[in-house]
Amino acid sequence: MIGKLTGRVDSLVEGGCIFDVNGVGYLVSCSSRSIAALPQAPGIGSLWIETVVREDAIILFGFADTAERDWFKLLTGIQGVGPKVALSLLSSHSPSELAGAIMAGDKGSLTRAAGVGAKLAVRLVSELRERVGGMPTGPAMPLPGGGSIVDVVMPVEAEVLSALTNLGYRRAEAQPAIRRALERVGEEASLPLLIRESLKELAPK
Predict the structure, then answer these.
(1) Higher-confidence residue: 4 or 155?
(2) Number of domains observed in the structure of the chain
(3) What is the pLDDT of residues 73-90, one digit of tens each?
(4) Is the pLDDT of residue 201 over 80?
(5) What percent of the chain is predicted at pLDDT more than 90?
(6) Mean pLDDT, the chain, whole residue set
(7) pTM of structure
(8) What angle do CA 119, 125, 129 make, to 5 degrees?
(9) Is the Cβ–Cβ distance between 133 and 115 less than 8 Å?
């Protein structure tokens, strides 16, 4: 089983890239965020790999960090979410944005991803809302030569603010809510918990 590939970026193809490892070219499917994090060809980079075995094919899916890989595995465990739809969600949302949308029940945000209709968005919210609290929302392990990705190395308050503004809240109302939530749960609170508590602060009283 392949867990990680480190090699030369040979070329980009639709929906992924060809990764040259010791002269062997691996076709790897990736989200647009992971592709953006790779160096330009022929640079050296790394991808975390999830392998999907079908009757007629073995498909490699690559991720710039372990957080995105873990979200891919979570999403594909939901009925109606295949690898293609999972990559679409991870292309249109960072892990922190996905966590925020699911916890807020923002089905409209989820339907921005190709292949996600209203019914599937409802299923994602109902089945994942109680499970996203323990999910990583940023790269758990940096990769050499991998460039940068939207979700990298931000203070937790900034990540919460980004998630809330992506949900349609104004900065002027989101920032005080985040500060009040921090006062209640403490600065060591996880990102999903802080998003959830900030949303409570923003809820109509």
Answers:
(1) 4
(2) 1
(3) 999 999 999 999 999 999
(4) yes
(5) 49
(6) 86
(7) 0.70
(8) 165
(9) no
**Residue 33 within any structural domain of the chain:** no
- How are beta strands 44-53 and 4-13 bridged, if at all? antiparallel
Distance CA 25, CA 41 (A): 13
Which residue in this structure is represented by tokens 């691996």?
Answer: 26
Q: Is residue 146 over pLDDT 70?
A: no
Residues in CB range of 54: below 8 A, 6 or more apart: none
Instruction: Kindly state the average pLDDT of the residues 30-45.
Output: 92
Q: Does 174 map to a domain? A: yes
Please work out, in degrees rounded to the nearest 5, the angle formed at the alpha carbon of residue 97 by the alpha carbons of 12 and 63.
30
Any idea what the CATH number is for the domain that residue 164 is in?
Answer: 1.10.8
- Residues 6 or more apart whose CB falls under 8 angstroms from that of 203 comprise none
Q: Which domain holds residue 183?
A: 156-202
- Residue 131, in any domain of the structure: no
Average pLDDT rounded to a whole number, residues 148-173: 68
Token representation of residue 41:
């060809």
How far apart CA 26 and CA 11 sit, in angstroms, is 11
87 in a structural domain: no
